[in-house]
Every structure is written in C-alpha cells, then in structure tokens.
Amino acid sequence: MSYKRILTIQDISCLGQCSLTVALPILSACGHETCILPSAVLSTHTAGFTDFTVRDLSDDLPAISAHWEKSGMCFDAIYTGYLGSIRQIYDVKHIFKANAAAGCVNIVDPAMGDNGKLYPAFDAAYADAMKVLCADADILLPNITEACYLTDTDYRETYDHDYILSLLKKLYALMGNKGTVVLTGVGYDEAHTGISVYADGEEQYYAHRRLPKSCHGTGDVYASAFVGAYMKGKTAYESAAIAAKYTLACMENTQDDPTHWYGVKFEPVLSQLMALVDA
C-alpha cells in the first residue's frame, strides 16, 4: 500500500502514555506519515493525577484547518480521539469535509466514558453531539459504555450475545447503515475479553485472555494500532485482532511494574506491532 498521510485529532497529555503521545509513535511505527491536531495540552492525563494543568486549544482548530485547506494539504485518514467540548466536535465535523483527500477514511473513537458512566467532563448533551460526529464515521471504535450512550441503550455489566448484537445494529444504523463498527471490551466470561466487528449485516468476534490488572491508556493504544494496521491494508477484522494482540502485549509488559501505574510500556513492544502489520 502506498505511503499514507494520517491526521489524528485529540489532546496531548505530556506525561501519561495516552492520546497523542501514543498515537503519534504507534502510527509512525506502522509506516504512516502522522500529522497531529492537538485539542488541548495537559501536563498529565486526569486519571490518578491531581493539580494537572490544561491549555484548551479550541480557538486554534479552525485556523489550522483553514491553513491546511489554503495550502492544499489533505489527509488519507482522519482519526479522532478525546475531544474536550461540543464545540470541538463540530470543528472536527467540518475538518472531515475541509481537509479530506479523495477516499479519506474517517475513524472515530468516541472517547467519552467507561464502566457505565461518562467521564466527569462530559454530560448528556456532549453524548448527543458525539452522535452527530459518529454519523460521519466510516469506522467507529466505541467501548460498550460509549455504545450505550450513542444508542440510548441501558448499560449492563453482564450481557449475552443478543445484547451485543443489538448494540452493533444500532451503531450501524447511527452511521447510516454503512461503514464498520468495532466494539471493544466484549467478554462473555470472566477469563476473556474481545472485540466484535460488524459490517453489512455480518459480525466477527475476536477474543483473548483477560489480564487481572487494567491499565490507563489502553483504549488509545488499541485505537491507534487499529488505525495503523487498517491503513496498511489489513481488513477491519484483521486490524481489530492485530490491535488486540498488541494491546495485550503492552499490558503484559507493564503488569509486574508497580511504579508504572499511569500507562502501559508500549514502546519496547512496538516491534511486535510492526511485525504484525507487515505480515
């Protein structure tokens, strides 16, 4: 596949191994030109840290997009992560149109919640605005909590396949019955977790073992690895499996280090991801 130019739009947590600080190296390792549009700059991520600094960059997004458009610069894929406000959601919706190359793939990780709840910065109005952005996605990468908010479905900690399939169909309808839904964190027993991939009325499921200790930033690692593999020519299901294998390797590389509580040590195992996407 030819050399791809990917734009990723999300915040920079300067320390913490999440958002742009994982997206940029992971996408670059997969062989792509990786361009960034920071939505905000934080001293650290917000999970477990206190007194962190935040610089909102909302005012800069439209001007940067306009400069790219004037310069004739456009992107083969636009991948969004954490967006800090409804205003930014609508700015990104404009960027999908203004800065896309022919055949551009819009990939949305609607990073807004987990474990049945929205993140503290967000409310129902934000979730409703995110539905509008997700309607423009070619590939949607929610977890189960986010899927429930996007589809007005009651969240369940335990569920069966019919519940997951219903979520997938609702998300697919939200996208206009086109594209691909990649639903993460789908596990039917305590020992396993996995990913359901849905498109054109067909579902594929990939599962791996569940580790006892969770880690911050794994959603961003997963999404970035998925985008890297997909834009290298892998199918959505192949990309989902590659991203899951890599995320698991990152977590395994971190499990026994109690000092590294704020993220995953993804850098030492980047070679594993590179081998998977080049296979």
In short:
This protein is of the alpha/beta class and 279 residues long. It is built from nine helices and eleven strands.
Structure description:
This protein is of the alpha/beta class. It is 38% helix and 24% strand. β10 and β11 form a beta hairpin. α1 runs parallel beside α7. The radius of gyration is 17 Å and the shape is globular. The chain starts with a strand and ends with a helix. The mean pLDDT is 96.
Across the major sheet, the strand order is 3-2-1-4-5-8-9-10-11
- Roughly how much helix do the residues carry, as a percent range? 25-40%
User: What is the end-to-end distance?
Assistant: 13 Å
| Biggest pleated sheet | 9 strands, mixed
Mean pLDDT: 96
Q: Which word captures the global form?
A: globular
Question: How is the topology of this model organized?
Answer:
Layout: E1 5-15, H1 20-29, E2 33-44, E3 54-56, H2 61-71, E4 75-80, H3 86-98, E5 100-108, E6 113-114, E7 117-118, H4 124-134, E8 139-140, H5 144-151, H6 161-174, E9 180-184, E10 192-199, E11 202-209, H7 218-230, H8 236-252, H9 270-278
Parallel strand pairs: 1-2, 1-4, 4-5, 5-8, 8-9
Antiparallel strand pairs: 2-3, 6-7, 9-10, 10-11
